[in-house]
Amino acid sequence: MAKKESAVLQEHDVQRLNDYQHARLRTEMYLGSRSVHESQVLIFGESGYEVKNVEWVPAILTATREIIDNSLDEFKKAGTKEPVLKVDFNEEELSFEISDNGRGIPIDYVPEYQKNLCTMVMTETKTGRNFDDSKRDETIGQNGLGGSVAMIVSSKAELEIHRQGRPYKTQSSNDGYDGFYKFNQKFEEGTIMFPELHVHEPTIRKVQTDKTGTTIRFTLSKEVFPNRKLPTELLYSILKEMAAANPTYKIFLNGKRIAIKGNTEKALFNASKLMQLNVKDDSFNFNSTFYIVPNAVAGMNTNFHMHGLVNNAPAFDGGTHLDTFKKFFSLGVGTALEKESKKRRMKPNRSDIEEGLLIYNVTTMKAPSFNSQIKSKLTNENVIRPIQQAMNTEWFDELVKKNKEWVDEIFERCAARTNKKDAEEDRRLAKKLLKGKVAKLLDSTGTDRSQCILLIAEGDSAISNMASARIPSIHGILPLRGKIMNVSGTEKTKELMDSMALHDIMASINLVPGVKAERSELNYGKLYICADEDEDGKNIGALVCNFLFKFWPELFQDPENPFVYVFKTPFIILEKGKESKYYYGHNVHEYNPDDWKGWKATRAKGLGTLEKANFRDAFTNSVAVAITDDGRLGETLDLIFNKKRADDRKNWME
């Protein structure tokens, strides 16, 4: 029961809190902000990556990571041969189940404290094994707080451990058995009357198995976390980074293994070789690799992004290692380019060098220190010197020597900035920029590209079920980022590149402004425009046609083998039992409800509402309407989109 407050404390308006009360009242001190936070983040999906703005509650992510970090640290300390980490996450309930196959938290009973050791470790904020820095080799645990605080801020939790030990209270009960136990203990949040974590008596039983490991189940309390936001895509991204950094680990999210193939470059960026800097200092087991990824950031407030892992912890807020790299990188590149700069009569600045760059880092080291319990920013000063020494003149000279295309891009940005770019430079810039991978493209696997079809649609939600219904050898799918730009045909390459949607279309198909489109050289034989069956959807399709016609009218001049199509999807969905029928946009006028009595009729509100089965029917039976030039297409598009023809447009509509 809650103790009666001291009269002296009451008189002076002073409160004396226990660890449980303090962690739940001042959670920010232990886990970070409980407000919804938005930040520019590098997100890894199943088939690509993207730098974008993401919203989440930092304290929720930290609480989750604390339990995950414990498992990863256990793998390091125990030298687990085939590490397995399983994470199950219910985003709506904010409930987690995190399990590993490590040694299991020690379950021995501690007579002096009348508790099992695992109970102490997971419920007491100052009990742990990470206080000796000499033993913190490539692990992340630091203060002995995280796991216990995660339990304290949960509405309910459960601890399940498989291992050997002496878990019973009496010596006689422990003697005579050296096999394995299953230790299970439940916890519940306290009440106003009892403001302490409610710890149930453990259930301990002997088991005939040599399985070891720890499983922790917990649901974060609504009383502690009124803001409840942690996107699954963010958790997946972090786990994928961990899997790539630890290729021998098997990491699962919601029952599905996060598959990793090849090294970090291949697994995360689908690249065979990236520009990189490798730094090593054996005095504190420091190993740090900086990967330099060009043309990876666009459409953000800052088109330069740095991110990485420190002993598996995501460095969302950077740190001394990333700060040091950034401080010397642009200066060193600029110095290495001095001879070329004189030759081209240009002087690239920091923005020319950094534009579009993603710097990705993986660091392991002994005894890392962080700005707070959140562990999002490295503070060790001893990392500065080895990084600075590695970024020497020889490394910068080799960097610019081996990466001519990137160097050309730097000077092209410099030329654009100083208004010295002519039409030829414009086309060359486009070719360089469009060589990069399209992060969102789900490419076709077919080798005969003339038989492949690219489907474009507005946004990720529109293609989620489309992707699972496609035929991979035929269909490539591209969700467009941002709005479709209304072009006049006179735009410079940089203007087109600034539009993420247009950039992705060009890069996916292999279209270059100012260069005639040769069908045999394109990445796809056909383009299907997918849009909702409403006015906005029609407008998107028209804008795409306008863009393509203004720069590559030849794509509309072969009526025998058209390139551009409008792809029709189910508009009216009829269901009866396991049977389904569909009406599409082109024949919806034939639909008569009286003809379908006893059937459930659904109007598809948009591509995002269609299910896998609906798209499967669309791929099999639907109509793709070809768009070709009948001699009037150019005039029609100009009438619709030319900003100077408002009066003509008004008369036409009347």
UniProtKB/TrEMBL annotation:
Keywords assigned by UniProt, alphabetized: ATP-binding, DNA-binding, Isomerase, Nucleotide-binding, Topoisomerase
Names of required cofactors: Mg(2+)
Alphabetized InterPro entries for the sequence: HATPase_C_sf, HATPase_dom, Ribosomal_Su5_D2-typ_SF, Ribsml_uS5_D2-typ_fold_subgr, Topo_IIA, Topo_IIA-like_dom_sf, Topo_IIA_B_C, Topo_IIA_bsu_dom2
Keyword DNA-binding attributed: yes
GO biological process: DNA topological change
Enzyme Commission no: 5.6.2.2
One Pfam assignment: DNA_gyraseB
UniProt GO MF annotations: ATP binding; DNA binding; DNA topoisomerase type II (double strand cut, ATP-hydrolyzing) activity
Coiled coil: none
Domain (Toprim) ranges: 452-570
Catalytic activity: ATP-dependent breakage, passage and rejoining of double-stranded DNA
Family: Belongs to the type II topoisomerase GyrB family.
Entry protein name: DNA gyrase subunit B
The species this protein was found in: Escherichia coli
